[in-house]
TrEMBL record:
InterPro entries: Plipid/glycerol_acylTrfase. One of its GO terms (molecular function) is acyltransferase activity. CDD domains: LPLAT_MGAT-like. One of its GO terms (cellular component) is membrane. The lineage of its organism: Eukaryota, Metazoa, Ecdysozoa, Arthropoda, Crustacea. It comes from the Eukaryota. PANTHER family: MONOACYLGLYCEROL_DIACYLGLYCEROL O-ACYLTRANSFERASE (PTHR22753:SF14), TRANSMEMBRANE PROTEIN 68 (PTHR22753). The keyword Transmembrane applies. Coiled coil: none annotated. Signal peptide: none annotated. This is Transmembrane protein 68. The keyword Mitochondrion does not apply. Keywords: Membrane, Transmembrane, Transmembrane helix.
Amino acid sequence: MLMYCEDPSSFCSLVLNITSATGNFIGNQLDLLYLGWVASLLYPAILVFIILPSLILVLLYISAFLLYIYMRRKKVYNVLNETLHRDPWASGRYLISLLWDAHGYIWHGYEVRGLENLPDEGPCLIIYYHGAIPIDIYYLVARTILTKGRLIHCVGDRFLEKVPGWKVILEAFHITPGTITSCVQTLSENNILSISPGGVREAQFSDHNYQLMWGNRTGFAKVAIESKSPVVPLFTENLREAFRTVSWPQRLWIALYEKLRFPIAPIYGGFPVKLRAHLGEPIYHREGETVEELAQRIRASLNSLIQRKQKLPGNILRALLARFYEPTKNE
């Protein structure tokens, strides 16, 4: 039986309002009780299947990291006790390299193929594909310091200088914006230098098809010619599967980047995919070859490396499975 009250100020209307409010309150409480009941059922499962196993997994990774450092304790001791008048950052770089190399080894099964293509002495210019985060360069710099005792100088975007707290990293690892003159100077001092012609644009707007976004840039080829340095192309398998950028709405990200000259597109990932770096055969400037011709030859070499080593389009699940099984390119 329904009750209707025409006068909102009547006792009848008051009773109806109280009844409605009480019903709503009891309904909300029942919802909360139901959610609590569901949580009480799920909590033991979450504890047993997620939290406790995760704690064990974290402890195992910490143990693996500490043992990785322990295996290299003699080398660490020697580096820390060497005379530092030549390079005050040498010991710090070595310790940081151990950290990054351990991370790459444990989290990504990181490996390098073609490391012999980097000279043990003398200049060398590395030209590489730029991932959403150039984590492969971090790992390669670390591996080169640990295995060859050589530092790879890097050309980085100017916005890095504006990131709070990063100045010490840029200084210690010789990461600079780089002009043609400064790059030639770095190589003339018999250093290894890495450049990504695609830069931040490639990092933000390339995707799992691994397209190079160099535009008409040829400055890197001019650096190679003027410094008389060999060029080694670098590509890392599954780099875009480790970290990706949010592509939608890409037109907005591009417009903001063009206006601000700062990476705006959100980045997500950190997936423990297999990362395998490939250093190609050195490329030398041919007599009479123009800057544009050399730039095109370097681009073609890096593109060929991508086509031969990366199954396109990239796939996160396939890259994860590559930690345990190495399929052929045609599989």
